[in-house]
Write a structure and sequence with these properties.
Layout: E1 2-6, H1 11-27, E2 30-37, H2 54-70, E3 79-88, E4 94-102, E5 107-113, H3 116-125
Parallel strand pairs: 1-2, 2-5
Antiparallel strand pairs: 3-4
Helix pairs in contact: 1-2
Length: 126
């Protein structure tokens, strides 16, 4: 089972997350937390990064709340598997970073840019 949570910084998203937590508690679903930013938010080299957007800050909060509720040591979402991954950098080079994954299940956090309805549907098709 997969759960796709599409949220933003508004209170209704916090309420929806509570339902996601309860559903995940009983199904051990693969969970993706998603927010969609306007297409022009970070285009053309603006000084703001996605990390400064309120929707992205809300996603971080939602991930922490999810793991606070379901990340105990006996949970499939427990964050105990450390690994190294390569990520692409803007200048064409790559950097290896250390990441912590869930023991059995990961909680993915993603942002997309563009039309919210289209991007939510595109994410659901992955």
């Amino acid at each position: 089972m997969r759960i796709l949570f599409a949220g933003d910084e508004h209170p209704y998203s916090e309420q929806a997350l509570k339902k996601v937590i309860e559903l995940a508690r009983h199904t051990w679903a693969d969970v993706t937390l998603l927010s969609v930013l306007p297409a022009l938010s970070f285009a053309q080299g603006e000084s703001l990064s996605p990390a400064q957007d309120q929707r992205v800050k809300a996603l971080r909060h939602y991930r922490e709340e999810f793991l606070e509720n379901l990340g105990s040591s006996d949970s499939p979402y427990a964050m105990e598997r450390w690994d190294h991954e390569w990520i692409p950098l803007k200048n064409g080079s790559w950097e290896e970073i250390k990441v912590c994954r869930g023991v059995k299940k990961d909680v993915k956090v993603r942002i997309r840019t563009g039309n919210a309805e289209t991007e939510i549907l595109n994410e659901a098709e992955i």
